[in-house]
Amino acid sequence: MTELDRSGTDGNAGGMTSRTAPKLDHLLGIAAGLMARRGFGRTSIRDVANETGISLGGLYYYFKNKEDLLFLIQERTFGALLELQEAALAEGGDAETRLRRLVRNHLRYFLDHFNELKVCTYELESLEGERYEAIAELRRWYYHRLAEIVAEVWGVPGDRLESDGRVRHATLFVFGMLNWIFTWYDADRDKPVDRLGDEMIALVMDGLRAGPPPERTESS
Amino acid sequence: MTELDRSGTDGNAGGMTSRTAPKLDHLLGIAAGLMARRGFGRTSIRDVANETGISLGGLYYYFKNKEDLLFLIQERTFGALLELQEAALAEGGDAETRLRRLVRNHLRYFLDHFNELKVCTYELESLEGERYEAIAELRRWYYHRLAEIVAEVWGVPGDRLESDGRVRHATLFVFGMLNWIFTWYDADRDKPVDRLGDEMIALVMDGLRAGPPPERTESS
Amino acid sequence: MTELDRSGTDGNAGGMTSRTAPKLDHLLGIAAGLMARRGFGRTSIRDVANETGISLGGLYYYFKNKEDLLFLIQERTFGALLELQEAALAEGGDAETRLRRLVRNHLRYFLDHFNELKVCTYELESLEGERYEAIAELRRWYYHRLAEIVAEVWGVPGDRLESDGRVRHATLFVFGMLNWIFTWYDADRDKPVDRLGDEMIALVMDGLRAGPPPERTESS
Amino acid sequence: MTELDRSGTDGNAGGMTSRTAPKLDHLLGIAAGLMARRGFGRTSIRDVANETGISLGGLYYYFKNKEDLLFLIQERTFGALLELQEAALAEGGDAETRLRRLVRNHLRYFLDHFNELKVCTYELESLEGERYEAIAELRRWYYHRLAEIVAEVWGVPGDRLESDGRVRHATLFVFGMLNWIFTWYDADRDKPVDRLGDEMIALVMDGLRAGPPPERTESS
DNA sequence: TATGAATGAGGATTCATTCAT
DNA sequence: GATGAATGAATCCTCATTCAT
């Protein structure tokens, strides 16, 4: 599955008019900020009301649920990132080039949408049912794109890609590096972000180029 | 600072006797399981009571707070891991050997204490004040041990270790790989764990051996 | 300090509208009744909910705290009494006249707002911090007005008023008479209340007119 | 009723031996201190346990109830005071002499047993049933002794004493002065206590000597 | 006598959500 | 579109009390 399909799973309450849409954007930004800082569970709708200046009851015009609010944030943010990445992949180039491009894009997006992306990264489990599934699907898409690149570097054929634990692991290691950044990134200390991406690629690229490790290991 | 100091920040209900100690262990295990699955915030003390069979009020004999319960889990689990790692480092060997030992130990511990370690990894922010600080200190200790190894591989002198962003980043990338595993590890699919560790080392070791990337990057 | 300043210490849920204000009055009346009968500590919010017919959660729309509820009662009741007394003092007259006026006003107010005033009198210590201080300030104001009258009768100059133990004691004796009434007053037996006031004045006025007792006493 | 009858209403758990009696004294003193400071309701048995060093369970050897603990304090303290006063009255003398003696005794006792007597004065309502009745009876006895003196000064015959509101009121006014002292007494500022008693007598004695006020008053 | 361990009831408070206006 | 007012369920925690040892 390569096509990205994003359409409201559940319908956010009523059609936004051109007058309400910017208000919604503002709202989602504030909510993302709160949830990034304190987590979804510890963020109350009342917090969002206070921070946005919208009344408690009024908020429910914009989303039908606390969970729906979270979904809206994740869907928009992650969706936009993936569109970006899809375009980046479409530009072509060899595997290393594409990998570097992916990582840099990710990190630039991370910088511009820190709160929102943090929420995407750490609050998937706060969604349930259809909403969970919709975001999980996006995540899988992202995973597969990276896995394909790893497989290409290692010359693992597409049909063995799914079953090859080593590809899986290497891919997830890279996502681990990428996702953990939210816990330590300090704008003053760790900029510029492109440099960070290059360091990550440098750390990993030689290992990738060397090919996958042997299937079996005896232990020390 | 190499000595690990772990002593109750706040004093949970006095010295456990030999009769209550195993009960406490059991309790903490159950609580860790719940918190690993649903998160700290979504785990209620009532859940713990139901799952353990201890009465709601009775639990408060073992800890003074929900937060204290979390602290107890983190302190014990993380403390024990760090003791293990401290011993592992004391065994000596070159940087790569020590790094591989650290990673393997971590992953074995991860396997044996999945729930508890997941709680340590993802719920630090649920602690506050002194309790937060006590665990954060443990984390810093762990970070520094790994950073020292990276610095040694790269020949960065000890006094520049703190200020060198590249050492910092490489170290945190490795922790990212390690910590993200909780989100995807599947016992059936991803064992054995030593193999996982070797793959991680393989992915990263060449990059490390190549030395740090240049300080500045230009580029698109 | 003669100006009375009473403004919410902490902001109970915003500005009451004309629709909610009477409900709040009713609520505070009920709560005062319960607290007068059973004390603040033994009055539960649930009691208030049951007695008012408002739901447990709904009550928190009107105050943010159990303590805030108590504060609201005290601030309103005591504040209104002191406004009354301030006006009474402004009417002028000699010291005895003003004293009699004060006592009568107090007792009439006592009769009309028995529960509320009892709560003011006996539950100051149930407040803390800013709220305590706000009410304590009102109490001090009241004390000083009475002390001034005593001092005037005795010809103690204003600047010695603070330091003169005899003025202090006589004033507090009168407050003692006044405040203890809550423990024994029986509407059937002890009315009319103006008569009670006159008896109190009669008991004390001759002693006051005789001037302060000598500074030092040898004992029996 | 002149005879004082004090015998445990309820039996404090088990007969105290000579070894446990002093421990009980200590315990009651501590408990009285806590209850004087924070009130009966806000004092927990756990507080008493912590403050005394006796274990929570162990306390129940000394009393069977939290209420029983309060009762023990009140019975002992108030009982001893009344014995003192009974003896003081037995010494004879005219009404003024006896009144002054009563007041001085009361205040000296107040000074030596501040906590305990405060608890007697303010926590009668925390007792129920038989225990309440037993202490209320002591209080009535005390009230009557003072009322008799007032009646004697005013020449009110003993058989009209009960029905005469003016005697009742004057008596209760004096108790009000006496009982309110707990709320303001400051050892540094307000000593010596005999002097305080003399001031109280001086404030009131002229009014008493002048005879009761006329039965009816027109108002304002 | 005294303690550690445990219970169950009740208390204050928060919170997502709803609905009439 | 938006608000004020209200609800009911759930949550954390405290506390008097008990009982085996």
Could you tell me the number of beta strands of chain A?
Answer: 0
Largest interface: C-D, 43 and 44 residues
Helix/strand/pairing class of chain A, anyone?
A: mainly alpha
Distance between the amino and carboxyl termini of chain A: 41 Å
Compressed to H and E, one letter per element, the order of chain A equals HHHHHHHHHH
Radius of gyration of chain A: 19 Å
Name the assembly state.
homotetramer
Beta-strand percentage range of chain A = under 5%
What's the CATH class label of chain A? Answer: Mainly Alpha
Indicate how many domains the architecture of chain A comprises.
1
What fraction, in percent, of the residue positions of chain A are helical?
55-70%
Characterize the biggest β-sheet of chain A: none
Keywords:
Tetracycline Repressor, domain 2; homotetramer; disordered N terminus; 220 residues; DNA-binding; mainly alpha; 10 helices
Describe this structure in words.
Four copies of one chain form a homotetramer. With 220 residues, chain A is mainly alpha-helical. Chain A has one domain (6-209): Tetracycline Repressor, domain 2, CATH 1.10.357.10. Helices cover 66% and strands 0% of the residues of chain A. The first copy, chain A, starts with 20 loop residues before the first helix and ends in an 11-residue tail after the last helix. Chains in contact: A-B, C-D. Chain B binds a DNA duplex (21 and 21 nucleotides) through residues 14, 17, 19-20, 23, 44-46, 54-58, 60-61, 64-66.
